[in-house]
Amino acid sequence: MFNEMERESLRLRLEQLNDKEITLMQEIQKERDNIYSKLRELDGKDVESPTINKKLSLINLAGATAQKLKQTKYSNQQSLPTNNVSPLNSATQTLHRSKTSIQREEALKILNKQEEGIRGARLRTEIEKGTGMKIKNMTTFMVGLMKHHPEVKKPYRGQYAIQNEKSFE
């Protein structure tokens, strides 16, 4: 039992690391795109000097090479099954999402439909029916869901519901 709990906590930590890695890669990509756009602006301004043109053409060549390398890297990543969320587009995002994140999304959809909550066993069968993936340990799954989405509560034993915050206005 303890071994399974440790395994689950390690798996959750790996998912957290994957999420951090993705956000870091996105930030680096944004900075790289900003640098390339600044270089393109400088390309347009510095047309007078032939020595600058020579240097800028080398910069353009390096940029094109980096772009090709990035494209081949992404195409190689797409061919391998991973648990990472790809920042490319929504079509590839569904291919690279983790099993748990897909199940969590389905659980939130089901819980949003239920005004007074739903029994854990029924929620489990509906999630499994909606995603086509089995949930090994429903309690652990729901603890993780409640950690990621604090609006999901467990008002009674075996009962789960989404509690919306009430404003005092």
TrEMBL record:
<feature type="coiled-coil region">
    <location>
        <begin position="7"/>
        <end position="45"/>
    </location>
</feature>
<keyword id="KW-0175">Coiled coil</keyword>
<dbReference type="Pfam" id="PF26513">
    <property type="entry name" value="Rok_N"/>
</dbReference>
<feature type="domain" description="Repressor Rok winged helix">
    <location>
        <begin position="104"/>
        <end position="160"/>
    </location>
</feature>
<dbReference type="InterPro" id="IPR058971">
    <property type="entry name" value="Rok_N_oligomerisation"/>
</dbReference>
<dbReference type="InterPro" id="IPR056984">
    <property type="entry name" value="WH_Rok"/>
</dbReference>
<feature type="domain" description="Rok N-terminal oligomerisation">
    <location>
        <begin position="1"/>
        <end position="43"/>
    </location>
</feature>
<protein>
    <recommendedName>
        <fullName>Repressor</fullName>
    </recommendedName>
</protein>
<dbReference type="Pfam" id="PF23159">
    <property type="entry name" value="WHD_Rok"/>
</dbReference>
